[in-house]
Design goal:
By secondary structure, the protein is of the alpha/beta class. Helix content is 28%, strand content 15%. The protein has nine helices and ten strands. The longest helix is centred in the middle third of the chain and has 14 residues. The protein is globular, with a radius of gyration of 21 Å. It starts with 37 loop residues before the first strand and ends with a strand.
Length: 292
C-alpha cells in the first residue's frame, strides 16, 4: 500500500540568535538613535604617522558624545590614553556581540576618556577582533552616536566607514606609503592630513599634487606629546593645539555635504581659517558639532 503524503509541515525559521549584547527586544528608534552616523576611519600612510593621535583628537573635538574605536591587535588606544587599568569592555569581551547589538548597553559598558567612549584592544589579551563582530558593533555604535572615529591600524577600512582620513608624513617614505595605500582602493571620500617637519622640503602641496586630492589639514610639531602619553594623559588635543585644529578641519570636511548642516556649528573651524574640499559622497545624518 502506498501512503499518500500528508500536508507539508511549515518551514521553521530559527529565531535570531540572542547574545548577552543583544537588545532585550526589537524597539523603535528613539530620538538619540539615528541611521547612518558619520563613521570616520583614520589611517596612517606609514607606521608612526600619528593616525592614532589624530583619531583621538577627532573624537574629542566632535560634539555630542562621540565614540572612539581601536582596530589594532593590542597595545593601541588603551595604552595611548592611559586606560590600561580602567574598567570597561574591550574587544575580547565582545566576541558574542553579533546581530542586533544593543547600542545603549554597548556604550554604557565602555571606559571613557575626556567624555569619549573608547572601545580598544587589550594588551593583556592581544589579537584582532573578528570582522563580523566589528561590522555589527560599528553598526550599533553608528546608530547611537553622531560620530564614530575608527583607528584602523593595519586593517582594511571597515565597510561601515563613510569617510577616511589618511595621515601622511612629509617624507619620501610617507608619500610612497600614501600612494600605495590609495592604490589599494578604499573607495571612500578621502581627507588627507599631512604632518610633521619636512626634512627633504616636501610640502603639503606636493602631497596633494601626487595624490590628486586636496590636503584638508596639516599637523605641525606637537610639543609635549611624548611626555603627556607617558603620564597617561593621552596626546595633547586641547583647544588651540595642532592636533585639535587639524581634527576640526577634518570633521568640518566630513559634513560639508551632509543632509542637514547647522551653519553655526563650526565656530572653532571658522576661527582656524581656511576650508576643505567637500567629500564626494553624501552622509544622511545631522551635522557633527564641534566643541567650543
Amino acid at each position: 500500500m502506498v501512503l499518500a503524503p500528508g500536508p507539508a509541515s511549515p518551514t521553521l525559521r530559527p529565531s535570531p540568535r540572542r547574545t548577552p549584547w543583544s537588545r532585550a527586544r526589537p524597539a523603535a528608534r528613539g530620538p538619540d538613535e539615528q541611521p547612518g552616523g558619520v563613521v570616520l576611519a583614520v589611517a596612517g600612510a606609514v607606521g608612526g604617522a600619528g593616525a592614532s593621535s589624530l583619531a583621538v583628537a577627532c573624537a574629542v573635538a566632535a560634539h555630542g558624545g562621540a565614540v572612539l574605536v581601536d582596530l589594532t591587535a593590542g597595545g593601541g588606544l588603551d595604552v595611548l590614553l592611559g586606560l590600561e587599568a580602567a574598567a570597561g569592555a574591550r574587544w575580547p569581551d565582545l566576541v558574542a556581540a553579533r546581530g542586533d547589538v544593543d547600542p545603549e548597553l554597548l556604550t554604557s559598558s565602555l571606559p571613557h576618556k575626556r567624555g569619549v567612549g573608547v572601545l580598544s584592544a587589550d594588551r593583556r589579551r592581544p589579537g584582532p577582533p573578528d570582522d563580523a563582530v566589528v561590522a555589527d558593533v560599528l553598526r550599533a555604535l553608528a546608530a547611537r552616536h553622531r560620530t564614530v572615529v575608527v583607528d584602523v591600524g593595519r586593517r582594511a577600512v571597515p565597510a561601515a566607514a563613510t569617510h577616511v582620513a589618511l595621515v601622511v608624513p612629509l617624507t619620501v617614505p610617507g608619500l610612497a606609503g600614501a600612494l600605495a595605500w590609495r592604490a589599494s582602493g578604499a573607495g571612500l571620500p578621502e581627507l588627507v592630513v599631512t604632518c610633521g617637519p619636512a626634512p627633504g622640503r616636501l610640502t603639503p602641496d606636493d602631497v596633494a599634487s601626487a595624490l590628486g586630492v586636496p590636503v584638508t589639514a596639516h599637523v605641525g610639531r606637537v610639543r609635549g606629546a611624548r611626555a603627556a602619553v607617558e603620564r597617561g594623559d593621552g596626546p595633547p588635543v586641547g583647544h588651540g593645539t595642532p592636533l585639535r585644529r587639524a581634527a576640526v578641519r577634518v570633521l568640518e570636511a566630513a559634513v560639508l555635504d551632509a543632509a542637514a548642516l547647522d551653519a553655526g556649528a563650526f565656530g572653532e573651524a571658522a576661527a582656524v581659517g581656511g576650508g576643505a574640499a567637500a567629500p564626494r559622497a553624501r552622509v544622511a545624518w545631522p551635522p557633527v558639532g564641534v566643541e567650543r
